[in-house]
Write a structure and sequence with these properties.
The protein is of the alpha+beta class. The protein folds into 2 domains: 3-179, no CATH class; 201-309, no CATH class. The protein has 8 helices and 12 strands. The protein has helices spanning 26-43, 66-71, 114-130, 172-179, 218-223, 279-289, 295-298, 302-309; strands at 3-8, 80-85, 101-108, 159-163, 201-205, 211-213, 216-217, 242-245, 249-252, 257-260, 267-271, 299-301. A 4-stranded antiparallel β-sheet has the order 2-3-1-4, with helices on one face. Strands 10-11-5-12 form a 4-stranded antiparallel β-sheet. A two-stranded antiparallel sheet has the order 6-7. Helix 1 packs across helix 3. The longest helix has 18 residues, at 26-43. 37% of the residues are buried.
Length: 310
C-alpha cells in the first residue's frame, strides 16, 4: 500500500540552497505533496493550516489540523518517511529527468488510517492529472521564436501515475467525513491562504497560455496584467500574484494561474477568488485567447475534479 510508480513527463525541479537543481532534494517533493494535500482537504470541506505562515499548528492546546496529522508539525512527527527510488529500488540522487520512471515509497512510522492513504492517493492523482509538482512551476511557455527553450519558459513538474496500490480508494463521502472530523483543529483564520482549495480550482487540459512577443501574451491577458510589461495595471493583479504595497506599489504573492506547453502534459490551471474573479469570468477570458474553445467540454471546476478523483 506504500508505493506509487510514476513517470516524469518533464524534468522535476526540487531546488537546493543555491537555487539550483543539480541533485534531487526529497523535501522539495514533500513540500509539494503537502501543499496539494491541503488543497484537496480544503476542497472536501476540511481546514488545513499553512505551515509556512504564522497560522500554523499546533494551537496552545497542542491540537493540529488534518494535514498536520499526516505530514507533522511542531510536537507531532510526520507519520511516514518518503523515499524516492529508481526502477531498481535504489535511492535517486540526481534530478529526475523527463521520461524517467521513479517510485515514491511512503514507509509508515506510525499507523496511517485507510482514509489517509486514500487522500494521499487522490493527491498524487490530482497532481498528475491536473497540476504539477516541485519548484519552477511558476514559469510560463513562450511561442516566440528563439525563446521557447529558455530556462524561464520551460516546463517542470509534470508527471503521470503508472502504478498505484490496489484497494486504496474510498468514496467521496468517506473522504469528506475524515477531512471534517471534529477532532481536527479548525479555530484559525485562513483568509490569507483559503484560496488554495479545490473549491476555487479550475483546469483545462490540452490548452496552454504563452508569450507571443515582447508586447503580447495570452497569459498576461488572462491574469489581467497590462501589456506591454512596462505598463502597470491594478486590475485584478491578485491572479498575477501581486498586490498593492504602499512603499513600492506592488508586492510579490503566490501566482494563481499556471500553464504548461509540454505535448504530453499540456494544461492550464488556476484558482479563482469569489467576489473578484469567478469561474464564468475565467471562461470568458480563456475563450478570448483560445480559438474554438468549448468551456462546457474542456473547463473543469474543482467540484468536477473531486467527482473524478473519487
Amino acid at each position: 500500500m506504500d508505493k506509487w510508480t510514476l513517470r516524469a513527463l518533464t524534468k522535476i525541479w526540487t531546488g537546493d540552497v543555491g537555487q539550483k537543481s543539480d541533485r534531487l532534494i526529497p523535501p522539495g517533493i514533500m513540500g509539494s505533496l503537502r501543499w496539494w494535500y491541503e488543497v484537496l482537504v480544503r476542497g472536501l470541506g476540511g481546514k488545513a493550516c499553512d505551515p509556512t505562515s504564522d497560522v500554523r499548528c499546533p494551537d496552545q492546546n497542542g491540537r493540529h489540523c488534518v494535514a498536520c496529522e499526516l505530514f507533522g508539525c511542531t510536537g507531532w512527527a510526520r507519520k511516514f518517511r518518503l523515499m524516492v527510488l529508481d526502477e531498481n529500488g535504489q535511492v535517486i540522487q540526481n534530478p529526475i529527468q523527463a521520461d524517467q520512471t521513479f517510485i515514491l515509497r511512503f514507509i509508515p512510522l506510525r499507523p496511517i488510517e485507510l482514509q489517509e492513504w486514500c487522500l494521499l492517493d487522490a493527491t498524487l492523482r490530482l497532481i498528475a492529472d491536473y497540476g504539477a509538482i516541485g519548484g519552477k512551476t511558476v514559469f510560463k511557455p513562450s511561442d516566440e521564436p528563439g525563446r521557447e527553450n529558455a530556462l524561464h519558459h520551460r516546463d517542470f513538474g509534470l508527471l503521470a501515475v503508472e502504478r498505484r496500490p490496489k484497494g486504496i480508494g474510498c468514496s467521496r463521502e468517506v473522504a469528506e467525513e475524515y477531512a471534517r472530523r471534529p477532532q481536527w483543529r479548525r479555530d484559525f483564520n485562513d483568509s490569507a491562504f483559503a484560496w488554495a482549495s479545490l473549491q476555487n480550482f479550475w483546469c483545462v487540459n490540452g490548452r496552454y497560455l504563452a508569450r507571443q512577443n515582447a508586447d503580447t501574451s495570452s497569459f498576461n491577458f488572462v491574469i489581467g496584467r497590462a501589456e506591454p510589461k512596462s505598463q502597470f495595471s491594478q486590475g485584478d493583479s491578485w491572479l498575477a500574484g501581486r498586490r498593492p504595497d504602499k512603499q513600492h506599489g506592488v508586492e510579490p504573492e503566490s501566482k494563481k494561474v499556471f500553464s504548461f506547453k509540454d505535448s504530453e502534459g499540456c494544461r492550464t490551471f488556476g484558482f479563482v477568488k469569489p467576489g473578484l474573479v469567478e469561474f464564468d469570468e475565467m471562461k470568458r477570458r480563456l475563450g478570448q485567447v483560445w480559438s474554438n474553445f468549448q468551456p462546457e467540454r474542456r473547463f473543469l471546476t474543482g467540484e468536477q475534479v473531486l467527482n473524478q478523483l473519487f
